[in-house]
Amino acid sequence: MVNAGDMNGSGNLMDFLDEPFPDVGTYEDFHTIDWLREKSRDTDRHRKITSKSKESIWEFIKSLLDAWSGWVVMLLIGLLAGTLAGVIDLAVDWMTDLKEGVCLSAFWYSHEQCCWTSNETTFDDRDKCPQWQKWSELLVTQSEGASAYILNYFLYIMWALCFAFLAVSLVRVFAPYACGSGIPEIKTILSGFIIRGYLGKWTLLIKTVTLVLVVSSGLSLGKEGPLVHVACCCGNFFSSLFSKYSKNEGKRREVLSAAAAAGVSVAFGAPIGGVLFSLEEVSYYFPLKTLWRSFFAALVAAFTLRSINPFGNSRLVLFYVEYHTPWYMAELFPFILLGVFGGLWGTLFIRCNIAWCRRRKTTRLGKYPVLEVIVITAITAIIAYPNPYTRRSTSELISELFNDCGALESSQLCDYINDPNMTRPVDDIPDRPAGPGVYSAMWQLALALVFKIVITIFTFGMKIPSGLFIPSMAVGAMAGRMVGIGVEQLAYHHHDWIIFRNWCRPGADCVTPGLYAMVGAAACLGGVTRMTVSLVVIMFELTGGLEYIVPLMAAAVTSKWVADAFGKEGIYEAHIHLNGYPFLDVKDEFTHRTLATDVMRPRRGEAPLSVLTQDSMTVEDVETLIKETDYNGFPVVVSKDSERLIGFAQRRELILAIKNARQRQDGVVSNSIVYFTEDPPELPPNSPHPLKLRRILNLSPFTVTDHTPMETVVDIFRKLGLRQCLVTRSGRLLGIITKKDVLRHMAQMANQDPESIMFN
To answer: How far apart are CA 622 and CA 609, in angstroms?
Structure first.
């Protein structure tokens, strides 16, 4: 401690901030991090470790451990994300089947597992075995008839309502942040925003449990988007164990970017697609080092999931398919048409879903989330049960739609009229006329398509975990399969037409309807999310066929063009704007000819800017300024007359510094002078002890002149991740522009409500 008598002796005066104190450099909830400052702090930390490593063997070992900590975190994320995804897949499989019946030999077996273990199962009746009993068989010993159907129908609805009610109750009571997809919030967090608890341990636990419940309930949602949130929760948990990441918000976001890649890797069994998804869709800052680590995390996660083998087919996903027929140039036309459909569906979905979510936020509907979930679940279950294509899980539906009709398929979609003289190998069956089963399936698919389109609009955004990838793919796959069957029958009955004559001779296997389903799924997913490169890679990793990249690319690009013609925002960006998160999208273009002086605060007629002076304010003056304003920081100037800029001090650090100084430094009282210079000011002999706060001062705040075009300012905010930028003229402070001011100005220029930006 420094005695009052030594206060003017600058040699003896201690800057107490030389010793670190708790919470300095941290951020408050719903605030944006300072990327430049975090980068600078990490560079200083690294320089310190490097210089210390030359001092002793122990310090050298510590530097190696620090260098390897990133790879260790990636390994742990991959292992936990893969394990959780495997457990979720197994639990969903069992609970989905539980709505229809139970396995008597072991109640924890799903329908498929139950019949695998049976010795009495024949190939033709592989879905029927004595050990698996529907609820009607178990309760009233009837498997057919009206009473059995009604009982099964009733119990199907009851199980669905039970699962949904339990899920929404767990989310409301234990982890409100576990609802939704999670991707809009993760995009916002990766851009530098702080949402405390969003990636916490409770959120991880509740999201994992409720994800199983909601997918099993039969609601029109998927688990793929929420798995990204789950993986990011794993990333946040493991990064908190290493000080390199827990004390630096910028470094933590590098870990979260890699975790997002691991999430998509286990969601689709697509490690490379996961890395590209993180790069293209969710990450804000993605250095080369993060690319390598994302790749490693995605690899470990996929390997872990493959080891668990949740689907029992040695594949990472339920709908892995292989096609044996090449595609032909003439088929590009229906593929592009599917792309147009995907773009139109994406636009329709985004507009309707955002309108419904806005209504939920602004009316009394939002006050009854449990009732909303119960009503939507009841409607879904009541309408879904009679149609075999909506009754089953959406992943199984997509799997059947993607499937190529082989000689051993028993699906209605494969009910073709066979030529009795056919002597072809089983993987090269020629095109055949459709049988009654195919026409019946077409009607059921058409009804299922309309139902899925409508119900998904109301389901996405409810207060339960809800992903959008699988419902979007299901809509596209249904439309694609119907188009594929149509083209196939056209080619069979009119093979002499000029478009079919060159490549579709009688008796040839020309058209693969499953391929059209896959292209349609990619188109609809692209229309909703506006993904392109990562989408194509995910889809070809799903199918294992490099041959079909061109049809997928054609559909993905067409769907993006068509959807972009009606609005540039994908579903995640639309939800970010709806929630008012301060997200500066790199894809948005700013073309207006405004200047920094038009946006900066204070404006004409407003109170002057609140500033600190370098050596003339007392502790009481600073505390009063903090109390009377709610700004996140204050520029420091030489004096209020000259207004020459010295630096910038953060509000949180001022509060912490004064609080700690009062506790740890003798003689600091309300009328002590606060100074930000290297040497203390000259004070009268009996003055109280001054307080030096130079260490918390940012001496190089980012500045622009008042005539800098806003186009440049917006670019600076995007690329450097700034919280605020000071406006000067000839070194004299004129005003300040915050990230919120930039977002408000952009909203105003786009004729939107500038007050929709709610957070700091």
So the answer is: 14
Distance between CA 3 and CA 245 in Å, rounded?
39
- DSSP class per residue in 677-696: SSSPPP--TTPPPPEE-GGG
What's 633's DSSP letter? E
- Mean pLDDT over the full length of the chain: 86
Interval 311-324 mean pLDDT: 72
The 3-state secondary structure of 600-620 reads CECCCCCCCCCCEECCCEEHH
pLDDT tens column, 23-61: 555 788 888 888 888 888 899 899 999 888 888 898 889
What is the distance between the alpha carbons of residues 569 and 564, in angstroms, rounded to a whole number?
A: 8
User: What is d(CA 31, CA 759) in angstroms, rounded to the nearest whole number?
Assistant: 7
CA torsion, points 266, 268, 274, 276, in degrees to nearest 10? 180
Give tens-digit pLDDT for 168-190: 999 999 999 999 899 999 999 99
Q: Which CATH number fits domain 334-417+427-579: 1.10.3080.10, 3.40.50.300, 1.10.287.3510, 3.90.1200.10?
A: 1.10.3080.10
Question: Which of the two residues, 553 and 5, has the higher pLDDT score?
Answer: 553
- Please state the rounded mean pLDDT for residues 259-273: 92
Spatial CB neighbours of 592, under 8 Å, sequence gap ≥ 6: 710, 711, 749
Q: How far from chain centre, in Å, is Cα 609?
A: 38
Per CATH, is 596-750 categorized as 3.10.580.20? Answer: yes
Lookup result for tokens 């639990």: 91
Task: Find tokens 């592009």 and name the residue.
Answer: 336
What is the C-alpha to C-alpha distance for residues 511 and 491, in angstroms, rounded to an integer? 8
Write out the H or E segment, with its range, that includes residue 698: strand 697-698
Q: Specify whether the CB–CB gap between 32 and 723 falls below 8 A.
A: yes
Closest among 310, 98, 87 to 216, alpha carbons compared: 98
Q: Which residue has the tokens 């520029």?
A: 635
- Chain center to CA of 220: 18
Amino acid at residue number 208: T
Q: Between 386 and 543, where is the model more confident?
A: 386
**Cβ distance 233 to 498 under 8 Å?**
no
The answer on pLDDT for 482 being more than 90 is yes
Helix (H, G, I), strand (E, B) or coil at 668: coil
pLDDT tens across 623-652, in order?
999 999 888 899 999 988 888 999 999 888
Q: Are 516 and 481 in contact (CB under 8 A)?
A: yes
Among the residue ranges 259-268, 307-316, 428-437, 626-635, the one predicted with the least confidence is 428-437
CA–CA gap between residue 298 and residue 270 (Å, rounded): 8
Q: Give the SS3 label for residue 729.
A: strand
DSSP state letter for 145: S
**Cβ atoms 699, 14 nearer than 8 A:** no
Please state, in angstroms and as integers, the Cα–Cα distance from residue 35 to each residue in 40, 257, 721, following that order. 9, 15, 5
Q: Give the closest residue to 717 by CA, choosing from 739, 701, 747.
A: 739
Distances (CA, A) of 378 to 2, 101, 374: 72, 19, 6
Residue ranges per domain, the chain?
96-118+125-174, 176-309, 334-417+427-579, 596-750
How would you classify the pairing of strands 132-134 and 691-692?
unpaired
Residue ranges of the alpha helices (H) in 460-508? 469-493, 498-501
